[in-house]
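User: Structure please.
Assistant: Input sequence and predicted structure:
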Amino acid sequence: MADYDYDLVVIGTGPAGEAAAINAAKLGRKVAVVEMRDQVGGGCAHKGTIPSKALRHSVKQIIEFNTNPMFRVIGEPKNFSFPQVLKTASEVIAKQVMLHTQFYARNRVDVFFGRARFLDLNNIEVLGNDAIENLRFDQAVIATGSSPYEPEDVDFSHPRIYTSDTVLNLEHTPRTLIIYGAGVIGSEYASIFAGLGVKVELVDNRANLLEFLDVEISDSLSYHLRNNGVRIRHNETYKSVTADDTSVSMELESGKRIRADMLLFCNGRSGNTKDLGLENLSIQPTGRGHLTIDKHYQTNVEGIYAAGDVVGWPSLASAAYDQGRSAATDLLGLPGFRFVDDVPTGIYTIPEISSLGKTEEQLTEEKVPYEVGQAFFKDLAHAQISGEVVGMLKILFNRETYEILGIHCFGDRASEIIHIGQAIMNQKGDANTIEYFVNNTFNFPTMAEAYRVAAQLGLNRARQVNN
């Protein structure tokens, strides 16, 4: 057994782990990371964010090709299989792995491949393919990410039953598909498969799709999924799942039974904390395997931090990176720490969604006097030029002070558009008002112009009411 000494050991090389390790290394600490896969990048690069978004991009291009009249003169609509569009994702993953491998090398962070297990408060055992190594550390960050939740009464070893991880190994395109769980991941894959011409049944155990969204945005997503052939079943939970050589059958608690070629189970995720030796540190994960942290990303054990999906909400790659960086800042005792609790939502359905701040429903419940400014993409010159006319930008602001309270966007590049509003929304004092968007000039034609249109309409409405 080889022994090594480090100031900091990070378990996991996804966004949270990488950010923690690189931040500490740049500040002169001796750092090691441990990755259970044979390549760095974590679940984000190999199973989650990167492959699913690359898939979505390819499917969106197929949809554009098949619906654009300019291309239709060339020939009939083209059909693409799921394995074909997966090739693009594989190419992107390879590029990401190379890039992040270089990050660790450039910053002199040692990378160990194998399974990590805490022996005590200062030692981690790494079981690799060829050897066992012992890493002695002063502090540690657990950034092991999460995995799809797999209930015991569903046979995930069956070749017709998949999770969001294993679906990336799919070697054919099903004709029909049941997606159980209409959260972010389920809704995204419903868009992807519907775009490939698959008949999708999306089973939601809630009354509305993505209930944390502004209702108008949620309704818009529901409409466009249905318009693309997705059947959405609300307020349904499964009772049993059976599969044979030809199909998968799901019996619902309501008494309904649905059948399809394949099942994609997307009902939540669990933190990757199994077999980490946490019992040797007196750290107890939750029932879903998540770790409890304080407002500085420290667990109940001093010197042991956790960040990223393993701590649960918000389970976004963007937040994970900031969490890891902030955790390293705190454990090093440096200024500039930030607890990440103000994160824009990015949902890569087709069309995509992004939101930040309060919804209309929340403001109504809190009895805040607010007004709404909206810009519909179909009225914007840039959207008309690009052909991406589905969607809208919605700004919620205080009717009396004009302070921006929430921004919600549905449509092409929503996750990019949201950041313009985010920058203004996070300004201090009088700088955070909707008036910014009418007092500054936006390039024309751009999608950013949506802010000017929405702000002008909203201000006109507020002034009429106030006068």
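The chain is about 30% helix and 25% strand.
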